[in-house]
Amino acid sequence: MRIGVLTGGGDCPGLNAVIRAVVRKGVANYGHEFVGFQDGWRGPLEGLSRPLGIAEVRGILPRGGTILGSSRTNPFKIENGVERIQENLAAQGVDALVAIGGEDTLGVATKLHELGVRVVGVPKTIDNDLNATDYTFGFDTAVNIAMEAIDRLHTTAESHHRTLVVEVMGRHAGWIALHAGLAGGANVILLPERRFDVDQVAGYVEKRFQHQYAPIVVVAEGAQPLDGQMVLHNQELDSFGHVRLGGIGQWLAEQLEAKTGKEARTVVLGHIQRGGTPTAFDRVLATRLGLHAIDAANDGDWGKMVAMQGTEIVRVPLVDATAELKTVPLERYTEAEVFFGS
Ligand code: F6P
């Protein structure tokens, strides 16, 4: 077969490890040929492709980002988008696709599969919010980056007796905030899954100062106060209907400073969480997913996504991955609460 590979949506460390595993096993074990589509769904939509053989994937295992480029292109929002994809696949002699992406990219893959395109999905996202898989690669790297930042912020916050609010990514799921906050010993962790009371947070912060330690507050970009709106950069929606989150950290620091009388500053970790080399965990997970994805394609098991369940890599229907968002269960959050304000 001649198989097209693409990476869509926000990039994350480990994408290149998947591409490498798919191509290496696909060529060596099955004799397939590959073509790399550029910039997510824009590649097959506009016929933008590049050669993808063993030579092209050498040395990419530890590299962050994606050698294929990425974008948030939604072919279902473009006139004749699906027909154009089908025409370009036929013109380039591509029999099937391996689509590596999150909620949006795999949502497109699901619909294309229903329209007859042969596709296998591989889940990725730093947010860890995809259903049907216990973990997505990129998440562990993002958590480690955030944890290291929190470790560093503890010492400077204490020197200056100030509150430091750390805003992390994760969109509408609090996984990065929960794990980075627990691993970094945050004083309070605020998630999108549970609205927070600013006065209660100010109380935790004051208590921490009483113990002669400075508080680190980890807030997920999608977290919201009890009686307030989500803080947004702007109201614009991307082609999948998502708003751009961010700004809650600054808002919260201002509130905490006013309520406690202690200086409060904000650190927005932003895209640092998505950049650079993947952790060993993410390299292994990404590699295993890639190996199993090419097996699924070789078996003609279309419309499936490879997923991690326990320690096994399994195949699940693509539609299961995006049926609902995997958010943090309340009991996971309450586990962490014992450390708040202490
Ligand atoms: O989905 C990954 C993610 O990094 C989210 O955590 C974040 O909200 C979003 O992408 C940011 O996207 P962009 O880089 O397009 O602004």
TrEMBL record:
<feature type="binding site" description="in other chain">
    <location>
        <begin position="271"/>
        <end position="274"/>
    </location>
    <ligand>
        <name>substrate</name>
    </ligand>
</feature>
<keyword id="KW-0963">Cytoplasm</keyword>
<feature type="binding site">
    <location>
        <position position="162"/>
    </location>
    <ligand>
        <name>substrate</name>
    </ligand>
</feature>
<comment type="pathway">
    <text>Carbohydrate degradation; glycolysis; D-glyceraldehyde 3-phosphate and glycerone phosphate from D-glucose: step 3/4.</text>
</comment>
<keyword id="KW-0418">Kinase</keyword>
<keyword id="KW-0324">Glycolysis</keyword>
<keyword id="KW-0808">Transferase</keyword>
<dbReference type="InterPro" id="IPR000023">
    <property type="entry name" value="Phosphofructokinase_dom"/>
</dbReference>
<keyword id="KW-0479">Metal-binding</keyword>
<comment type="subunit">
    <text>Homodimer or homotetramer.</text>
</comment>
<protein>
    <recommendedName>
        <fullName>Pyrophosphate--fructose 6-phosphate 1-phosphotransferase</fullName>
        <ecNumber>2.7.1.90</ecNumber>
    </recommendedName>
</protein>
<feature type="binding site" description="in other chain">
    <location>
        <begin position="125"/>
        <end position="127"/>
    </location>
    <ligand>
        <name>substrate</name>
    </ligand>
</feature>
<feature type="domain" description="Phosphofructokinase">
    <location>
        <begin position="2"/>
        <end position="296"/>
    </location>
</feature>
<dbReference type="Pfam" id="PF00365">
    <property type="entry name" value="PFK"/>
</dbReference>
<feature type="site" description="Important for catalytic activity and substrate specificity; stabilizes the transition state when the phosphoryl donor is PPi; prevents ATP from binding by mimicking the alpha-phosphate group of ATP">
    <location>
        <position position="104"/>
    </location>
</feature>
<dbReference type="InterPro" id="IPR012003">
    <property type="entry name" value="ATP_PFK_prok-type"/>
</dbReference>
<feature type="active site" description="Proton acceptor">
    <location>
        <position position="127"/>
    </location>
</feature>
<comment type="function">
    <text>Catalyzes the phosphorylation of D-fructose 6-phosphate, the first committing step of glycolysis. Uses inorganic phosphate (PPi) as phosphoryl donor instead of ATP like common ATP-dependent phosphofructokinases (ATP-PFKs), which renders the reaction reversible, and can thus function both in glycolysis and gluconeogenesis. Consistently, PPi-PFK can replace the enzymes of both the forward (ATP-PFK) and reverse (fructose-bisphosphatase (FBPase)) reactions.</text>
</comment>
<dbReference type="InterPro" id="IPR035966">
    <property type="entry name" value="PKF_sf"/>
</dbReference>
<feature type="binding site" description="in other chain">
    <location>
        <begin position="169"/>
        <end position="171"/>
    </location>
    <ligand>
        <name>substrate</name>
    </ligand>
</feature>
<dbReference type="InterPro" id="IPR022953">
    <property type="entry name" value="ATP_PFK"/>
</dbReference>
<feature type="binding site">
    <location>
        <position position="10"/>
    </location>
    <ligand>
        <name>diphosphate</name>
    </ligand>
</feature>
<dbReference type="InterPro" id="IPR012829">
    <property type="entry name" value="Phosphofructokinase_III"/>
</dbReference>
<feature type="binding site">
    <location>
        <position position="265"/>
    </location>
    <ligand>
        <name>substrate</name>
    </ligand>
</feature>
<comment type="similarity">
    <text>Belongs to the phosphofructokinase type A (PFKA) family. Mixed-substrate PFK group III subfamily.</text>
</comment>
<dbReference type="InterPro" id="IPR015912">
    <property type="entry name" value="Phosphofructokinase_CS"/>
</dbReference>
<feature type="binding site">
    <location>
        <position position="103"/>
    </location>
    <ligand>
        <name>Mg(2+)</name>
    </ligand>
</feature>
<feature type="binding site" description="in other chain">
    <location>
        <position position="221"/>
    </location>
    <ligand>
        <name>substrate</name>
    </ligand>
</feature>
<feature type="site" description="Important for catalytic activity; stabilizes the transition state when the phosphoryl donor is PPi">
    <location>
        <position position="124"/>
    </location>
</feature>
<keyword id="KW-0460">Magnesium</keyword>
